[in-house]
Amino acid sequence: MKRFLLVLCCLGGAQAQFSAPPVGITVKEGAAPKLEVARTLGVQPAALALRLAPGHSAGMLTFSVLSPVNAEVRVRASDARLTPRQAGDERLILSANTLQSVTLLATAPHSGVLSFLNSEGQLVASAPYTVAAAKTVNQSLSLNYSPSSSRASMNYGISGVPQSPLDLRWNASVNLSVDTKTGQVGGGVGVNMSW
């Protein structure tokens, strides 16, 4: 038992040192993909649209482009209120058959056309776009008819869209119903507010 404790004490005082070989990752520059002249270009979605967020005067219009070849294209808007986020961002380097996301800054509501030019300056695609103002109200309309009760009804509702978290919230509705057998008309009005 004494020998065991002696061996254990000796091993406890020993220090082991291990050294691992250094590990590193070396990134080697590969040959840049050979660029061809784009003859066609896909732009999606088909309808490019942005609604500015409530309380905002600017927003980002985002869409995707797709080229069948490795190519350089330039995107240009017909209106200066839709611009690249930074100068020079209108130049896109596209990899073949790879969707590439594009984001442009819209500084005001308007409509226009995006033009996509290949490296020779030829138009290869165009896409209309719309930047809509922030909504200030939401509206709804519902029409109902129930043959079992012979009732037809209509409900119209309107509500404000808060422009900031501090804004009052409100909605109003009008309801009208008619008994198609007797001609009896009924209805109501409702207004709700919260803050």
Automatic annotation (TrEMBL):
Keywords: Signal. It comes from the Bacteria. Residues 1-19 form the signal peptide. This is Uncharacterized protein. It comes from Deinococcus arboris.
